[in-house]
Amino acid sequence: MKEFEEMLHTLHPPSEEKKLTPKQEQILKAAVEVFAEKGYASSSTSEIASRANVAEGTIFRHYKTKKDLLIAIVKPFMRGFAVPFFAARFVQDVFDVPPEKLEDLLKTLIKNRFEFVKENAPLLKIVLQELAFHSELKDQFQEVFIQEIFPKFEEAIYHLKEKGAVVDFPNPTMIRMIMSPIIGFLVTRFLIAPDLPWDDEKELDQTVHFIMHGLSKGTGSSSD
Amino acid sequence: MKEFEEMLHTLHPPSEEKKLTPKQEQILKAAVEVFAEKGYASSSTSEIASRANVAEGTIFRHYKTKKDLLIAIVKPFMRGFAVPFFAARFVQDVFDVPPEKLEDLLKTLIKNRFEFVKENAPLLKIVLQELAFHSELKDQFQEVFIQEIFPKFEEAIYHLKEKGAVVDFPNPTMIRMIMSPIIGFLVTRFLIAPDLPWDDEKELDQTVHFIMHGLSKGTGSSSD
DNA sequence: ATGTAAAGTGAGTAATCACTCACAATTTGA
DNA sequence: TCAAATTGTGAGTGATTACTCACTTTACAT
Q: Which stretches hold the DNA-binding feature (chains A, B) (predicted)?
């Protein structure tokens, strides 16, 4: 019940954007709940209103349409997730560091983003579900991930390849290989089996280990 | 237009289950289309009927509810995907084969399942989307994947660990690491960017390479 | 205290929804 | 050939939907 306030702060960081009225926060909180539970299309504005202890008209006072409400929820989440990747240090850190420390660096980044997702697990579900159907969300995804995060990865990969520490797969393939096990863990951890007794630290370490070894050259057969 | 017949055969293999009337096939074909396009909840039975050139009542003659129609589509797809894993040979093949050939064996299996998914790409989308919301589909998933496929993997992993060829992560973690890059590829290949000029053979080879090396012991740090 | 703008309300609305049913057309079996 | 069973039809139905709007309440500056 308490960590929702932090989540809402993430949704609408107090630094930017106008501050929200209490009812507005209740609406956002209820909408995240309902959207995550039933999916956007199966959620009714009347249920969101009643769960937020608010009249249905109040929702439409602040959000012109139901889809506007969805976007108001998802957009800040995506931007919030991407924030660390905007740091100029990101790429520099990756290729300045000696290869044997790279694993630790990746771990730090991933653990940080893991905590962010952990605090916003329902948002992860909403994004993964609705990205497929709403072009507005796709555009936002394109803006944040493909235009900001992916190029950072590509630059880092470029330097790793130069050092010869890494297999020579195409960049999109390598990025997919880096992200797939991470997303696979996040989805299992928060969506499929959130109630299992997870040792997050261990799982993340093993996931990073898996990625690094999977991308490393050689391992026994030193053919090419 | 033509490969739909094969797909429908996969949906309702002629060996079992009663044969379908032409209208019934049109309904299934249209339903797959519409469900994949707009998602189950946003699809209307009236649109499915009109796209199938069928009266709306005809749908409900064969499927009591809209959800019954969804299940009639998804269930055979899941069963069809699992078929090769039911083969008794599966595990035996994996641990009888010398480790250096294991990669080839995995490739063969994965390429085979890849072709199956390729012929039923819209079904993949429907399953991934709707699994989250319909307990009937979760049950079917449980039945097929968790009770049939996962144990086969566990047995194979047990023998691989015995041979000492593989890191000692928990079985669920290892299964996740095997499946994540494959699912990541399938999702990218068929849902996110199906129109890219894919070299499927190469991508699959690299994905298997990535998995095998990621799970292999050692590579530099032979600490534990 | 008072005027004004913003926030909140909930009954009302037209559209759409999944589903029904009385009936028509077609297929089947003997 | 003909009756019975199966398959197909589409107008009709009650429920639910996102959204509106005339109105009330609250917040705030002077």
A: 44-63
Q: To the nearest whole number, what is the mean pLDDT of chain B? A: 87
pTM value surpassing 0.85? yes
Does residue A140 lie within 7 Å of nucleic acid chain C, judged by its CB?
A: no
Answer whether CATH 1.10.357.10 is correct for domain A73-215. yes
**CATH of B3-62 given 3.30.70.3040, 1.10.10.60, 3.60.10.10, 3.20.20.150:** 1.10.10.60
Count the helices and strands in chain B (H runs, E runs).
12, 0
C-alpha span between B206 and B198 (Å, rounded): 13
Domain covering A3-66: architecture: Orthogonal Bundle (1.10)
Residues with CB under 7 A from strand D: A 43-47, 56-57, 60-61, 64-67; B 21-24, 54-58, 60-62
Name B28's Cβ contacts closer than 8 Å, sequence gap at least 6: B8, B11, B12, B20, B72, B73
Separation of alpha carbons A50 and A70, rounded Å? 17
Q: Are A183 and A177 in contact (CB under 8 A)?
A: no
| Sequence spans of domains, chain B | 3-62, 73-215
Rounded Cα distance, B94 and B172, in Å: 18
Residues 6+ apart with CB under 8 A from A97: A105
The residues that bridge with A216 in the sheet, in sequence order, are A166
Encoded tokens for A95: 């290729």
Q: Is A216 helix (H, G, I), strand (E, B) or coil?
A: strand
**A113-146 pLDDT tens trace:** 999 999 999 999 999 999 999 999 999 999 999 9
Better pLDDT: B150 or A7: B150
pLDDT tens digit sequence for A54-112: 999 999 999 999 999 999 999 999 999 998 888 767 677 766 777 677 788 888 889 99
Asked if A181 and B181 count as a contact pair (C-beta separation under 8 A), the reply is yes
What pLDDT digit, counting tens, does each position of A7-57 carry?
444 444 444 455 888 999 999 999 999 999 999 999 999 999 999 999 999
> Dihedral sign, CA of B122, B124, B128, B130?
positive
Distance B123 CA to C22 C1' (A): 36
